[in-house]
């Protein structure tokens, strides 16, 4: 049976994050945590492979204990197992340290349930927002990476071949690769399913497996958490809100309004920038 | 099936061991991205910005050109500001694939030791940068929109964070090179200068048998699919359009302006237009010169994806719509009357003798 791993991160719902106007800091209090948007698409694709070919779907998340809830949500949708990789020592990880821990966790999952055939990641997280963890994990596992996938055209588990469509700025690339591979999922890939009643019931009782640093005897402490993270946030600031003096163009006759708008656009540097002149 | 899987030798721990002397790392390297011998505009923009950094560091500006039949780009990189260009020209590099391309990058970085490596934050650039930074290993900042260096030769790479609500400056003190990807359309390319001279250094491809496992079968150029990332003019619509027919109005205006059609998530979710048109947090982040938001309320998830457009025109029947807060020009009224009038006005201006005329040349190169 195929073994699929989905890397899932629980993220703060960025809709709810506000900037405190007095202190210019992020207000995270009361911000709900959700499954990272793109990771739902990653999970959905794994579940589709499971529906079609039969597979074991393991969801792995590195995060605080509260991420158990996100793992339960994945189980309610149809994942077989949810693993929370959680330890204070992992805190403060950047993408290099995160991909190290996730790669270790995937290898441990291979020891437990057999070699992994496909690793699914999201395109990027709503909070980290880098898209670097997927390629990092692929490198560390020494498997090929297929990033920004918008369609899985075919998967042949016997020949161990997969054909996907990768999204690029100027087109689509059809790529054939051999398993094992790592895929990063775009929203175009699918529509995530809603959990059915059996899933919801199973999830309610389900207790995610928790792995801490103690479960990784070979883990190099210098490569995890803050210490293992080469990037440092040296400062953050709130950009001056773009001061826009909106010029409202008024009038009852659309033709006149349109003329007026064009007149103002032509008075800017747009004609020069766009080659209108 | 399990037993058929060849045993892999994963490289989970990639950090360099022991003390490394970083002082020999000098200069700025820009990785030039191209398709079919055409460079992406972001590559020249980055070279322009990197020239400024290299001058401040008093260090050479290097460029890396990879591909098949791309030697003209090495010369072009010199015209665009590079002092030294590494050229890896090989039929195996016809299509971008992570392994062969990252091997060439790693070879150049390890041999010539730049202190800073920059690439465009394109799909390909992010794919490649993520792989290289892990292999080296080093720190990588994604999606920078500001770059600078300080007196300790540290790269200050600033990027939007938390849905563009904040900006963060990221440093990498521990390792070299310091790496960043940078967004398209943010930095200015240098004017092309044919009198500039520089050195071109050929680099052999670093192919290994396992690189063949992944194969690009074909590249389907965007036809009928939109290229929001590179567009200079975007005419975007939302739920206010009332249905797919509304988007036809936008398309006409976009065609007149040489632009493309964008959409809010609400319109995409309703199935009025494809997801590739979606602008915003879960769609595409865009920075055109001119952005029309038509029948779009201005939810933060939409706004974060378009607020850095040079000029924003909002058309909405609700004068309280939040989109007006960030618009340079606002028209309160019914889009079904206003949009055709604008299209008509543009058409008239183009037809008018001696009048300035919009050209339909979205910049992609
Ligand atoms: C996790 C998450 C991610 C999201 N990501 C995105 C994203 O990437 N991009 C995105 O766009 N949204 C995103 N959203 C959705 C976002 O919150 C809004 O729901 C969406 O942007 C609203 O789209 P809209 O402005 O078209 O619709 P509405 O908010 O319904 O606005 C329609 C507007 O049209 C105006 N109108 C109606 N009729 C007319 C007329 N005849 N003439 C003129 N004006 C008219 C109305 O006054 C109104 O202001 C996301 C949401 C979530 C939860
Ligand atoms: N802490 C984490 N736990 C599990 N998966 C993660 C974690 N961080 C990132 N990922 C995966 O990597 C993808 C890219 O994340 P990022 O590089 O942060 O944008 C996400 O969509 C997830 O699939």
How many E strands of chain A? 15
Quote the distance from N terminus to C terminus of chain B. Answer: 47 Å
Oligomer: heterodimer
CATH homologous superfamily grouping of the largest domain in chain A: HUPs
Q: How many helical elements of chain B? A: 8
Q: What top-tier CATH class of the largest domain in chain B fits best?
A: Alpha Beta
The ordered string of helix (H) and strand (E) elements of chain B is EEEHEHEHEHEEEEEEEEHEHEHEEH
Bound molecules: flavin-adenine dinucleotide, adenosine monophosphate
Helices and strands of chain A, in order, run as EEEEEHEHEHEHEEEEHEEEHH
Q: What is the CATH top level name of the largest domain in chain A?
A: Alpha Beta
The stretches of 5 or more residues of chain A where confidence is low (pLDDT under 50) are none
Q: What composes the largest sheet of chain B?
A: 7 strands, parallel
Helix content of chain B: 25-40%
| Total number of distinct structural domains of chain A | 2
Content-based structural category of chain B = alpha/beta
* Shape, principal axes of CA atoms of chain B: elongated
